[in-house]
């Protein structure tokens, strides 16, 4: 999930209890779950910058940020400077970055 609002993760994400137990086990602390379940958010000041408001999966965020920058800077199908990209274009690059990460894992 990508968002530009500062809404707590438990308001935005509703996970089935069964899924939570599979991924986290039976004894997950609510504060840890919320930190690690926060959505990806773009900075208001820099449209291509991912931010997080609380501690949590910074290694995940930095990996996605690196792939996003790679997608933006080295995009061969892009006609315009990546800094001039619209929010929709940034979202598309974000999705392409996630696909490239998943492709590496396959």
If you had to describe this structure to a student in words, what would you say it looks like?
It is a single chain. The chain has 106 residues and is mostly helical. The chain has one domain. 51% of the residues lie in helices and 7% in strands. The chain contains 5 helices and 3 strands. It has helices at residues 9-12, 17-24, 30-36, 58-73, 87-105; strands at 2-3, 40-42, 50-51. Strands 1-2-3 form a 3-stranded mixed sheet, with helices on one face. α4 (58-73) crosses α5. The protein starts with a strand and ends with a helix.
Radius of gyration: 15 Å
The SSE string, one letter per element, is EHHHEEHH
**Main beta-sheet annotation:** 3 strands, mixed
Q: Mean pLDDT, nearest integer? A: 82
* Poorly predicted parts: 1-12
Class from helix and strand fractions: mainly alpha
Total of domains: 1
- Outline type: elongated
Give me the side-by-side strand order of the main sheet. 1-2-3
Percent of residues in helices: 40-55%
Give the end-to-end Cα distance, rounded to a whole number of Å. Answer: 22 Å
Brief digest:
The chain is mainly alpha-helical. It has helices at 9-12, 17-24, 30-36, 58-73, 87-105; strands at 2-3, 40-42, 50-51.
Which descriptors would you attach to this protein?
single chain; 3 strands; elongated; mainly alpha; 5 helices; 106 residues; disordered N terminus
């Amino acid at each position: 999930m990508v968002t530009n609002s500062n809404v707590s993760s438990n308001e935005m994400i509703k996970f089935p209890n069964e899924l939570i137990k599979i991924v986290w086990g039976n004894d997950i602390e609510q504060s840890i779950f919320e930190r690690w379940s926060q959505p990806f958010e773009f900075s208001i000041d820099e449209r291509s910058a991912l931010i997080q408001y609380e501690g949590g999966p910074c290694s995940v965020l930095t990996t996605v940020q690196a792939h996003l920058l790679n997608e933006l800077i080295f995009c061969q199908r892009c006609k315009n400077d990546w800094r001039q990209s619209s929010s929709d274009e940034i979202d598309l690059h974000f999705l392409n970055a996630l696909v490239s990460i998943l492709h590496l894992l396959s």
